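Bench notes, afternoon.
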Amino acid sequence: MICYLFSNPSYFIFSSDVPALLYYSHVPTAIIVFMIGFFVFWKDRQSLMNQLLFAISACFSIWVISNLILWTNIHSDFMLFVWSFLRVLSSLISILSIYFIYVFLEKKDVSLLLKSIFLILIIPIIFLSSTYINLKGFNITSCDAFAFEGVLFQFSRVFFGILAMIWILFLLIRKYRNAGGNFRKQILLMGVGIELFLFSFFIVTFLAAYLTDMGILSDSRLEFYGLFGMDIFIGFLAYLIVRYKAFNIKLLGAQALIFSLVILLGAELLFAQNTVNRILILLTLAISIGFGYMLVRSVKAEIRHREKLQIVNKEISKKKNQLEKMANSLERSNAKLKKIDATKTDFINVASHQLRKIPTPIKGYLSLLLEDSYGEIPKEQREILEKINSANERQINLVNDLLDVARLESGKVILNFKKQDLADICQEVFSSLLPEAEKKGLILEYKKPKDSLPELIVDKGKIFEAIFNFVDNAVKYTPGGKVDLQIKLDDKSNYKAQSLDDERKVLSGSVIRVTVVDTGVGIAKESLPYLFAKFSRNDKAKLNVEGTGLGLYVVKLMIEAHGGRTWVESPGEGKGSSFIIEIPVKQPKNIVAED
């Protein structure tokens, strides 16, 4: 048959003289590929990877349409013009595919050197495509130009295809070895998809042309099957989009799958031979649209759920990072504070020892003067010396308190643990302070329990000092009334915590409780939590009582060193107060009586 004797195609591409498979392999593939590439590009036009995918899809679609025109058209001059672009388009597809894989793997643009190599490879093909080196004639009887193709362009078709497959395979293998997790799966999927596409497109179309040129095949319709490789590649891309959110697109993959299926089924109507086939195809198409709609809805719901989870996870991660930063900052601050506190303790320790050297001999000489060891002293001078002695005594007490604090805080204090009866220690405190209380006109009471209390392993001197401090303070801060020293065996169930912090500190099991109750000036509720702090005093006291503000803090440290606890209770100012010490009967294992 003579080409120009074929029937003229309607609508430029539709002809009854071509195989029906032509339209099924060309039209749906061209539409699907172009639409997918365009959608991906439109979703993120700034992404280089999306731009390259669109360029590949555009070049491929133009190649497919050009090939379709060559199969359906009868005008040799127009066919020769279209044929001259085929090798340029196929070469561009190869180079763009390599470029695309580079960006996909490295997530960045290629170097200027590599871009130059790409240009060196493609520019000769572009400039020589319109010359006789590409095509120098057309066979009007067979409607082809295979015999008139230049050797360079015949070679370029195979060269660029094989070059792209080998180059991309090398890149994929190199990256796959060092990748991990989900990205390895993405590399595998992308690699299989693009290699199948390049193989089917270049090798199958080359074989179709070569075998036709050799006379083995009557025409090159074998190339129709080579185009389906792009459909496979699009399927892999759609899966990457849905499963791994490639190309910064979330829903497009599912929509692309449905769209592609509808196009492919619709294209089957073009070569259906009878009405029954058309009806079956239409039913399949309707069912596919229904299932596709449900699939898209489910994907949308899953995407919304994932987005919410991502937002929640980001917030959790953000809060976690903030907490970690705060924890690290607090840890550093705590370390600095410990260092400062240790330095301060060392300073107080050294300073206290140095300060002690001065008032101690002064105290000795004042005692000799007040005892008339150097002769009788006039009354006026005695009063002055007594004031000096009182001030000196306060300084000694301050130095002693500072030394006690420094030793207790540093853990350097040596405790002499022995079994003791706390009731006897209370009796000694009572006997020591009774004259002072009577001098002030106060009633000081103490009743030793009738039943003996369990003996505890304690440092008698420290416990005596703690109880003495409480009773002495009560006497000082009580202008009238009485002070009651009590001791008993108690259980934690009888104690009602005033706060959650108190409840956490309640000692377990039986305890021996020492309580000093007075009818003195009392303590304001807001002052109670700070009374045992360092350098803290009852500022609401109406009595002119001198103090260092360290006594109660020292007592707290002493009692805690025995595994006990101490606190204060007061109904308010002017209503008296109760100072309590609790020491557990079952003491910590580190407290052992010395021989």
